[in-house]
Every structure is written in structure tokens, then in C-alpha cells.
């Protein structure tokens, strides 16, 4: 049986990377780990506690103190995983519009990222994991066996996110969703620490005009090639 890989999938918000990673992890029998939920949970905790999001020290202290767990789904309500914040289920709370609007600001603080990065690495380096985020291939798991950067136009990403929000009963316009995505892209690409970019050795895939199934099939070929590399036992 081929050796289990460590797979990193990066890309901007709503590029389809989480959908891809979840489908791939299920088919391979790997752990699905969306690192974005960790930063969303910190953002949620800050909003709940009324912490000023411009107060870097307070946010860094919060990130170091709270406990965030990610487990297989315990409820059949469409969630890919359970996300627990200090033992409390916050799986859907971290997907609300206020968190969407502020998560890039919170995750841009170096101290926040430093407080969480070692935990991410500890999980990822066990192998047999599909880890998805914005700096997995460049910072969290630079030695990942396979690195993929999944991208799409901002218009396509906004369309997907708007459909997703409508399906959950969230009342927001396409224009607002697109505006928010453009703002997040600017923050993610220009932050001082771990800016959003493709790793030098990442395979770049553009998902515009492709179905999720077509993208998954293309990634399966990349997995097979990675498993066939010299030194990987059967």
C-alpha cells in the first residue's frame, strides 16, 4: 500500500480549496484539517469578549490561552468537522458574517499565528493528512509531500460564496460578498507575516470553468505521481 502523504492545499478565500480537501481526504482515508477554522475560532472568541481587534497584544494573549479542537463531525448537518472553542461547539458560529469580515485582520497578527503554528505542524507532520489554509505550503508545512495552490477569479469565488450563504439562510447581497472577498484578498496578500502566495514548488490549479469533480480528478493524478516518487514504498 502506498505510503501516506502530507498534502498541503492553499489558496484565497472561496477558491474551493476546502471542498477539494474534504473530498480528497474522504477518498484517501486521510485526516481533513482546515486550518482556517482555528483563526475563525480566535476571531469569534475576540468578538464574543469585546476585544478591540486593533489590540495586537490582547489578541495574541487570547490565541495563547484558548483551547481549539477539531474532530470528526458528530452531527449530520453538513459540517465537515466539529470545531470546539474551550469545549463548546462553535462549528457554525465561526461561519457568520461578522467573523467573515474580521478573520483576516485577526490572522494577520504575527503573535496570533505564532501561537497556533506549532499545533498545526504537530498534526500535519503525522502524515495521512490533507491540510488546507493560506500558508500551509509556505510556512506551516514547507516539507509537505504535495503542495497545491487552488485559485479562481474573485467573481467566481464571490458567486460560490453567495450561493453558499443563501443556502444557509444568510441574507446578504452578491455585491457585499464580492467587496468582502476583495478586502480579504488585499489583507492576506499584503500582510507582513506569511502573506498569501503559492509555494515555489506548488502545483497551481485554476478552478474557473471546472467542476469540483474535475478538479478532484486532476488532484488524484498528482497524488499518484507523488506516491510513485523514488523512495516511497508500496
Helix content: 40-55%
Low confidence ranges: none
Please report the number of helical segments: 9
Strand order of the largest sheet: 2-6-1-7-8
Strand content: 5-15%
Look at the structure and give the CATH class.
Alpha Beta
CATH homology-level superfamily: P-loop containing nucleotide triphosphate hydrolases
- Mean pLDDT, nearest integer? 91
Taking the alpha carbons of the first and last residues, their distance comes to 5 Å
Cα Rg: 17 Å
Sum up the overall morphology in one term: globular
Structural class based on helices, strands and sheet pairing = alpha/beta
CATH domain fold name: Rossmann fold
Report on this structure:
With 234 residues, the protein is an alpha/beta fold. It has a single domain, classed as 3-Layer(aba) Sandwich (Rossmann fold), CATH 3.40.50.300. It is 49% helix and 15% strand. It has a five-stranded parallel sheet with strand order 2-6-1-7-8. A three-stranded antiparallel sheet has the order 3-4-5, with helices on one face. Helix 3 runs parallel beside helix 5, helix 4 (97-107) packs parallel to helix 8 (174-190) and helix 7 crosses helix 8 (174-190). The mean pLDDT is 91.
Amino acid at each position: 500500500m502506498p505510503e501516506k502523504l502530507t498534502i498541503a492545499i492553499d489558496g484565497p478565500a472561496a477558491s474551493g480549496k476546502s471542498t477539494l480537501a474534504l473530498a480528497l481526504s474522504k477518498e484517501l482515508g486521510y485526516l481533513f484539517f482546515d486550518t482556517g477554522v482555528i483563526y475563525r475560532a480566535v476571531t469569534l472568541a475576540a468578538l464574543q469578549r469585546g476585544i478591540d481587534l486593533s489590540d495586537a497584544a490582547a489578541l495574541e494573549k487570547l490565541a495563547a490561552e484558548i483551547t481549539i479542537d477539531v474532530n470528526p463531525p458528530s452531527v449530520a448537518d453538513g459540517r465537515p468537522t466539529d470545531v470546539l472553542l474551550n469545549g463548546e461547539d462553535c462549528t457554525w458560529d465561526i461561519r457568520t458574517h461578522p467573523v467573515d469580515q474580521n478573520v483576516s485582520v485577526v490572522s494577520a497578527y504575527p503573535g496570533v499565528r505564532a501561537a497556533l503554528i506549532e499545533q498545526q505542524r504537530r498534526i500535519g507532520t503525522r502524515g495521512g493528512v490533507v491540510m488546507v489554509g493560506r500558508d500551509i505550503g509556505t510556512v506551516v508545512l514547507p516539507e509537505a509531500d504535495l503542495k497545491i495552490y487552488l485559485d479562481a477569479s474573485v467573481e467566481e469565488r464571490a458567486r460560490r460564496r453567495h450561493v453558499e450563504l443563501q443556502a444557509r439562510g444568510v441574507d446578504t447581497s452578491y455585491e457585499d460578498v464580492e467587496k468582502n472577498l476583495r478586502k480579504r484578498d488585499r489583507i492576506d496578500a499584503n500582510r507582513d507575516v506569511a502573506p498569501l502566495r503559492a509555494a515555489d514548488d506548488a502545483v497551481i490549479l485554476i478552478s474557473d470553468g471546472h467542476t469540483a469533480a474535475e478538479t478532484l480528478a486532476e488532484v488524484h493524478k498528482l497524488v499518484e505521481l507523488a506516491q510513485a516518487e523514488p523512495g516511497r514504498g508500496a
